[in-house]
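Handoff note, outgoing to incoming analyst
You'll be picking up this chain. Sequence as last confirmed:
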Amino acid sequence: MKQVVKLGLTLALICAVAGMGLAAVYATTKPIIDKRAEEDLLNAAMEVIPGASAVEQQELDGARYWLGKKGSQVVGAAMQVEAQGYGSEPVEIMVGVDTDGTITEVKIVSMSETPGIGTRVKDEAFLSRFRGTANPAEVDGISGATVSSGAVKGGVSKALSFLSSIVAPGEPDGEVVIEIAAVPDGAYEGTGKGLFGPIKVSVTVKDGKLAEVKVLEHRETAGISDPAISGIPKAMVDKQTLDVDAIAGATFTSEGVIEAVKDALKAFGVRQGAGDRPKDITELPDGEYEGTGNGLFGPIKVSVTMEGGKITDIKILEHRETAGISDPAFRYVPEDIIEKQSLDEVDTVAGATFTSEGIIEAVKNALQGSE
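Most recent structure output, in case you need it:
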């Protein structure tokens, strides 16, 4: 018995010593591994911004990106994004964008796609298709690797949208607002950009209302896009508005359908500056109004309560923003709007700028829709 106990103690001692040894090795090597990983990211960022002599790491709303500079001049930006393909792990992609808002380079950092099939997204023949484009949705996918190539296109589109707002924001010229009640009866056709190509729709208006929205042509993936192809038109007709929420899992298809419908009715739209909407909130009837704005990672939906010509409550109904990082915006922006009773003098929250602007846009859309 004593011999067994002695052996057990000896084994425990050996395990303890081995464990301490492994901990010591980990503590020694982890900083080296982390430093190497950061260097790899920095090199990947440099690779996708041609002409940059140096890159500077930046952060906005919890998202990390790199500004590419030549001397003191900004020549582009890069961002690493993840997109779920066919494999068990997301595809990690480094995307470069120039100051014209076009893709410079795309580099696959890591992936777990099917060897010989999905791994073809790493081939130069595919990645070169993104260079010089401002619309990744128009890039041809890979036959036999539809899911993998679609994931890359989606990730590149996400990075392009984010980086373009930083290095190629353009001049804001107001939003085109389409009042369905002002559209003459008739059938209209329009086209939007889906994930895999154009989406064509027909829109029928009767007695100042949306009578039917039908998708005529598209190249989206069967099964995956079906909920958006059928759901977005139905939501528009049911709610009698063009500002409907995207379908989870088919965001790009949803946005393509919405864009196509707006394109069909664009001749009847009125361009309004942000300061023009709403004109006078004090004249709005009491009640609750809902609206949607664009956050960093998707739509932000709010409800706004009006009482006695004043905004008394703003609730966030839905969003896809990053928990923790976006929380201050969800707290302070509604409070600021209620305190100031204005949508034009509201401060954005540092570190959550895009989320703040999405909330403000959603409230404006809610009250604009009530007029």
